[in-house]
Design goal:
- The protein is α/β, with parallel strands linked by helices.
- It has one domain: Acetylglutamate kinase-like (Carbamate kinase, 3-Layer(aba) Sandwich), CATH 3.40.1160.
- Helices cover 43% and strands 25% of the residues.
- The strands form four sheets. An eight-stranded mixed beta sheet has the order 5-8-2-1-11-13-14-12, sandwiched between helices.
- Helix 4 crosses helix 5 and helix 7 runs parallel beside helix 9.
- It is globular.
- It starts with a helix and ends with a strand.
């Protein structure tokens, strides 16, 4: 009986948050590392199905880097990364498109539907217009050619709003369409941030395999629970933040400056971490908010 009472108490604690967020747009980006562990992915998708069931207009953007690497290996295509981005040749983009659409996206949609959520594919090349990504090597100054890697230049939010308005979860692939109709690969964090900014979502959650932002990467107890945009800049300057977390934090800051309410960094390995972060007062990850 005590366990039943505790379950009821959890539901009543969540009630004010459910009432507050009902009808709000929320975007969740799940990284490829979380998707590699089937039980972690399914638990996360159950959380997303719950969010949709209680009235949150939920959008899901997924990665799929490891699945793409396996697909390229099968096709005999060498995988190269420059400054954290996959070099995507003409042959590689065909593999990227096939893996993201036919394997990764199809699996996510099927799992959501298994848990009675109304989910549909919404491939990124249907909504993202991109420009070819350019850059320079910071050491040599030489131009970098990533091939078919794009940066979102325009986002068509109408298909997203039509689906969420009908209670459907759009499951978005990080792809874009160039000016000539060519398909481009987009970094999934970049795609999620661009879509969140265009929609001005109330919450943007990045799900990965880290607890959040740590002052000491070797000490989980050093988790920073709440950060402002200004404090993110100071942490970067002090060297506390580095590596793969830098582009993610840059995406977070840009999203908030563009009107996104809050950004959350959540550990997808923890059972029901997304629900705990959104529907409890204490949360379990790092939230990033405006200085105001």
């Amino acid at each position: 009986m005590q366990r039943i009472i505790e379950k009821a108490a959890v539901l009543t604690e969540a009630l004010p948050y459910i009432q507050d967020f009902k009808g709000s747009l929320v975007l969740v980006k799940v990284g490829g590392s979380v998707m590699e562990v089937p039980e972690n992915l399914e638990r996360l998708l159950i959380d997303i199905a719950f969010m949709s069931a209680v009235g949150m207009k939920t959008v899901l953007v997924h990665g799929g880097g490891k699945a793409i690497s396996r697909g390229m290996d099968r096709a005999g295509i060498k995988t190269d990364f420059v400054m954290g981005l996959r070099v995507t040749t003409g042959a590689a983009i065909r593999v990227v498109e096939r893996v993201l659409k036919r394997e990764v996206n199809a699996n996510v949609v099927a799992l959501l539907q298994k848990h009675k959520a109304r989910a549909r594919p919404l491939h990124g090349d249907w909504i993202f217009k991109v420009e070819k990504r350019t850059g320079k090597n910071p050491e040599t100054g030489a131009a970098i050619d990533w091939g078919y890697v794009g940066e979102p230049a325009d986002v068509d939010v109408l298909p997203v709003l039509e689906m969420t308005g009908a209670g459907i979860i759009p499951v978005v692939t990080p792809l874009g369409s160039g000016t000539e109709g060519d398909i481009y690969n987009i970094n999934a964090d970049t795609a999620a941030a661009a879509l969140a900014k265009a929609l001005k979502v109330r919450k943007l959650a990045f799900i990965s395999d880290v607890p959040g932002l740590l002052m000491d990467v070797n000490d989980p107890a050093s988790l920073l629970k709440t950060l402002t945009v200004g404090s993110v800049g100071r942490l970067k300057e002090s060297g506390v933040v580095g590596g793969g977390m830098l582009p993610k934090l840059d995406s977070c800051v840009e999203a908030i400056k563009a009107g996104v309410g809050k950004v959350h960094l959540v550990d997808g390995r923890m059972p029901h971490s997304l629900l705990l972060e959104i529907f409890t007062k204490q949360g379990v990850g790092t939230e990033i908010i405006s200085d105001e």
